[in-house]
Amino acid sequence: MTEAAAAPALEALGLEKRFGAVRALAGLSFRVERGELYGLVGADGAGKTTAMRALTGLVALDAGEARVLGMDPSSPRVRERIGLMPQQYSLYRDLTVEENLHFFARLAALPRAVYRERKARLLGITRLARFGDRRADQLSGGMYKKLALACALLHEPEVLLLDEPTNGVDPVSRRELWELLYEFVQSGMAVVISTPYMDEAERCSRVGLVQAGRLLLEGRPRELLAASGRSSFEDLFVHAVEQARGPGAPAPGGPA
Amino acid sequence: MSATVVARELTRRFGAFTAVDRVSFEVERGEIFGYLGANGAGKSTTIRMLIGLVAPTGGSASVAGHDVATEREAVKASIGYMSQKFSLYLDLPVMENLAFFGAAYGLEGKALRLRAGELLERVGLAGSEDQTTGDLPGGLRQRLALASALMHAPPVVFLDEPTAGVDPVARRAFWALIRELAAAGTTVFVTTHYLDEAEYCRRIGLMVDGKLVALDTPAGLKRTWVPERVVVARGRGLGGAERALRETPGVRAVAPFGAALHVRVDPAALDAAGVAAVLSGAGAAGVEAEEAAPSLEDVFLAVVGADGKEAA
User: Fold this and answer.
1) Which pTM was predicted?
2) In the beta sheet, which residues pair with residue A12?
3) How do residues B16-53 score in pLDDT, each as one tens digit?
4) What is the pLDDT of residue A135?
5) Residues of A with CB below 8 A from B123's CB?
6) Is some CB atom of chain B closer than 8 A to the CB atom of A174?
7) Are B262 and B252 in contact (CB under 8 A)?
8) Is A178 at the interface with chain B, CB within 8 A?
9) Using a CB-CB distance cutoff of 8 angstroms, which residues of chain B are in contact with residue A182?
10) What is the ipTM of this complex?
11) How many helices (H) and strands (E) does chain B have?
12) Which residues of A touch B140 (CB under 8 A)?
């Protein structure tokens, strides 16, 4: 266990993946330490989701290597220590908010007292306490997302990957979820999160800007911002992406 | 009278649950009206009533002069609607999606093709007519959904979180389209959780637990809800020093924004230098603090009562 304890929480080493003609990952490399909150940002189709799937062993790589806690991500010893919240998260639509939480707590074999305490906390943060008896298929998009996030956070894994967990989630709940993530990383969890919200990217310990399947920029948000001379993280993002796409390939939707 | 959307004491109950509680407002022709609130606050239910999908259980509303409860067909013909999950046929080419939505509103033949061509040009999809919709990146799919909702040239469009999950590059382009649309006289009723976008709205209504608790221009909301001075502080170890700040006299609220803290202070008691001194004294390093104009997110937090006041 000592060598595993010394290994970084997550390592992407030259990840390569093609889907037909599309090169989704083109030599993507980064590493995340325990106690770090690493943000993967990038435009739609940049490769963030494929990277998360590769790091959790759900996608077979063409080349390169993914390591979780020093091990192959598909090994059973990794599976119980890692959590992934994909963009399309499946809950039981005919179960209520509370019943879904209870089900996932049982899957994770959480002791009853721990479950009670975490449930109360997560329902408070997500402001779903008022809707505990509502069926999942009766929730709005944002509320469904919050319930999915609560279910994914119940078992507090050592390494947590969240693929755009806050899309459609209101600003108050977004803040409170970030407070919770901070607590998790302070206790040593490694978190990788992708997000289209640039204020969230700015709150990560480090961010990697992904474009065309590889890293375009990486660093601490404040240092990246200072080095770029831009006034906001969103400006930094928009300009970096437009520059990478080049003048011959205007951003889709740029004024025609 | 130029109000295009009018709600009077509009109410919807589901059993014992009141999703929308006596909401009243008027939206002018050509106005971009933002409708904000937490998830579950009643935004989507309000929109569903305004477009005739859900009947009000109390009060009334009209859209383009038609009562939403009694003139549903006329309402439907007057509105375009784009929901959180745009309802495009992903296996169809771009043009066929537009043709489908156009035909649903009685457009056909040359008129339909002309209108579709005009809209594709406007949303930057000219030349993509034959591309399979499912192959388009999210930002372009979103614009196709908008074009579909505009095929019958409705005077009012309802956009329910049209930019959820869309990257910043595509979001900027989308809002440029919305502003053009409104400038040409279309009334735009939009919900969003991106408060930077809400700045583009002429007026904003803010919902909390089914009630409309604030309604004003972005500047007016800021004056009313955040009358104090806002100090933005940056530095290392701010989290640990936050508590000391909350206990400082003159500090009204503290909330993290990106990597920074927004501190609302009573200007008579504390200034930016004072905030920096408290943070540095409580262990934060490299602190820089400056006054800034309040943002709509400051307003949102104040209205929803989640701006850390109770923690003081």
Assistant:
1) 0.85
2) A30, A66
3) 899 999 999 999 999 999 999 988 899 999 999 999 99
4) 93
5) 253
6) yes
7) no
8) yes
9) 239
10) 0.78
11) 11, 14
12) 252-253
